Amino acid sequence: MTELTEQLSAELSTALTTEAMAVQRYTYFARIAEIEGHREIAQLFTELAETTSCVAHGHLDLLQPIADPATAQPIGDTRLNLASALAGGLRDADEHYPRWTAAAHAAGCADIASWLTSLAALKHAHVARINNALATVTTVAGQGSAPE
User: Fold this and answer.
1) I need a labelling partner for 103 at 20 to 30 A (CA). Which of 19, 65, 76, 138 fits?
2) Residue 59, Cβ density class (10 Å: 0-12 exposed, 13-18 middle, ≥19 buried)
3) Residue-range definition of the domain harbouring residue 16
4) Tens digit of pLDDT for each residue in 45-57?
């Protein structure tokens, strides 16, 4: 594969973000349709989410030789992926959610601030789980594998 230019890498990162958001939207829409009793429409949204997820994975495959576009960390094998997930989780827990919580408080939205505070705690729990998983992975000949 030819090397990606900085511009193309940025465009693929944007495409990944767009597709990942579409997956979440379609999944949410499917849930609402299911609740409302529109099973065929729920199935349509579920299928769209699955297809769109494959597209997003394709973008990640193309970006893998460069880095995780969310963290700028190397990705590829399980150890690298866990390390990137850890970096992203820490950033979310320690920077993003506290900043968003402060913005909600400043806007006078205590209920939203409370929600965001809860999510920061959830992110810290995710970080702990990822860190524990990372401790179990050993690298063998460039491939990540967990002990049996």
Assistant:
1) 19
2) buried
3) 6-63
4) 999 999 999 999 9
119 vs 39, 41, 93, 98, 115, CA distance in Å?
31, 30, 8, 10, 6
The answer to whether residue 70 is domain-embedded is: no
User: Taking residues 114-129, what's their average pLDDT?
Assistant: 97
CATH number at residue 86: 1.20.1260.10
Cβ atoms of 13 and 5 closer than 8 Å: no
Yes or no: say if 73 and 83 are a contact pair by the CB < 8 Å rule. Answer: yes
Work out the average pLDDT over 79-93.
Answer: 97
Q: At what angle do helices 39-63 and 6-35 cross, to 10 degrees?
A: 160
Q: Tell me the pTM.
A: 0.83
Give the model's confidence band at 138: pLDDT under 50 very low, under 70 low, under 90 confident, else very high.
confident
